[in-house]
Amino acid sequence: ISDQKPLGCWSVKHGQVLTCPVVCNFETHEYIAVHDDKVLRIWKDEDINLDKVFKATLSADVYRIHSLPQGGPLVLFRGGGVRTLDVLLEAPQQEIENVVSAEVIRWSGAFMEGQEPVLIFTTEKDGHFFVYVQKPKLSSLHRYKLEQQESAKPLCFTAHITNQTVTLLCLYSNYSVYQVLIPLQQDTEENEEEQEEEEEVLSKSLLLNLSVSGTVLKGTSLVVLDKDHIAVLGSLAAPGKQPKEYLTIWNTKFQTLQTSKELPLGTSGQLWCYEEKFFLIHGKVLTVIMYKCETSSLAAAVGKLKDSQTPDVSSFLNWNTLEDEELVVSIQSQESVALKAESRMNLRSRSTVAEQQQETLSVGQLLINLKDSSTYVLETELRKLMAKAPTPDLQATIGCVVTALIDRCKRNPKYYPQNFLHQIVETRDLSYSLCPDLMALALEKKDMHLLQVCLQRFPDIPEEVTYTCLNVFLSMSDAHLQSIDVDLDSVICYIDIELDNKEVKTEIVENGFSAEMDQDTKIPRESQFRSDGGSCPVGLQKAALLNAVLHSAYTETFLLPHLKNLPARQAILFLRYLYYLYVKCSEKVNTTLPGIRSPTINQIMDWMCLLLDAQFTVMVMLPEAKELLSNLHRFVRAQVRFYSELNKIEGSLQELQRLNHLRESQTYSIEVLEII
């Protein structure tokens, strides 16, 4: 999430609707989805089209699929029936029992108790609420009725299991949190008979009133953090003021508000918690906040109680670091989606809290103090800061350092620490999201070498930035680039260039194979089809920069719209270079270009197809592209024919290889094999 890169995208056909959240099967690393209530789909990362993946039509409507790290996926049907995915796939059309009758499921959750998965769900019927506890592998089901309250009704639920006891937390419409304890029963025939005879009513106890300085927090979602802390998302409306949405952390043991954070852009009302991370929609972005719970103490609770006179409660987490441009701890940018791991919540005692805040502020305070210092002092202190940074916060600290340097460059256009920035990018494990303004600064300063290194090393560069770099590289003249220092390791071993009308070849012959030796074969030589006379259409420096673009990660869906804006002249030049690389790869027996970080045949083909998709109309209409497209077409057609012929004799070659293994090594013989 912090890298802002879509890893995969799948869609159903028009008219089909995904009817429950998609989950991941931790055991098989597959995705599981249900569309149109009954159609089950299962696929993996490498699958592209959902129409071609595994499909099973079930006999009943699915409410939710729950995936447990060690228990496998559980499928909960709208009628209350539960099946493990393995059992369901054995007979997808098996009959599913109707457990809940006319009741409607309102919430469900899955948990592990020892080695056994436990599924809990709540239902509603005519204003009455019921709780079901089910152990699918043991075919165990218990139904309870929730104690009714005339003045309020449940809005949402959450639960956890500790010591064979289910703790169900209910947020009611009077904005109080109630607790219900349900012991996990050992199933015997007597228990089943008692349950059938009498419906057990669960009593609830008040756990927490969501009130801050007399103002009620109107909660919409809650999650359990540990046995002493819960998080509630809701709105707080002071008298005479507009309601404001807050994420709040409460200590249930001491009945105190531990900390809160205003969310001014609004939320969807939903809050998720997974592996010590909060997930919530804030405005139009997905916000992720890491936290860490430690043992609750009375000192910490009392300390927070003193501060709870204002809605924005000060906390053991310095929330302000999420918004301070100087600290940059959260690595925010215009396209930032995530609040990084450095915005941690540590639920701990006051003494530890103070130390944590001091450590967090030390980096930011240092950067503020260095704001007006000399260039020499700034760089010296920043080098010291990177050298002594603790390992867990090293990346965040380096991100702060780079951002501080960029801020100095913005304030002083004459200042540009080129060598320092190169050293940081080349020796540190950075990403685009840690320093989002760095590549923009390099483009402004026309620092081609820094852009090259960023493209090679950053795994999360937005497609718009990748396109901008490509356009800049193609637009610059080769004469101008010759005076620029760039890394030529990816091109120096294979590229052909012309200097003063004299061709220089640095071609590597592999396994005794070269284009010159291949005069009589049917493999087309590049000189026959290359429209630019046989040499590389760009200079060494530009080729090295374009290779860096070919190495950068991208998502086709997001890159294609930008490539459509590439000027025709640059598009034709880029296609010529890609064609040149394609021919070069085809000369080699293993279709691999020599050199360090040279582009692969797959990268070349992918970019060539992408460019043709984006610029197809332009290429067809322009006379300058006609010869290039014709040559490319003939070369690809010849290759297809050649490999087709190889496929025809594949069986004979395999038989020959088998005979070689069977033949005695000391026996001399002459054999004639007829290939039909």
Automatic annotation (TrEMBL):
GO molecular function: RNA binding
Organism domain of life: Eukaryota
Nucleolar protein 11 C-terminal domain location: 366-674
Keywords: Activator, Nucleus, rRNA processing, Transcription, Transcription regulation
Primary localization class, coarse: nucleus
Keyword Glycoprotein appears in the UniProt entry: no
Subcellular location(s) of the protein: Nucleus, Nucleolus
Domain Nucleolar protein 11 N-terminal: start-end pairs: 1-292
GO cellular component labels: nucleolus
Name the UniProt record assigns to this protein: NOL11 protein
Encoding gene, per UniProt annotation: Nol11
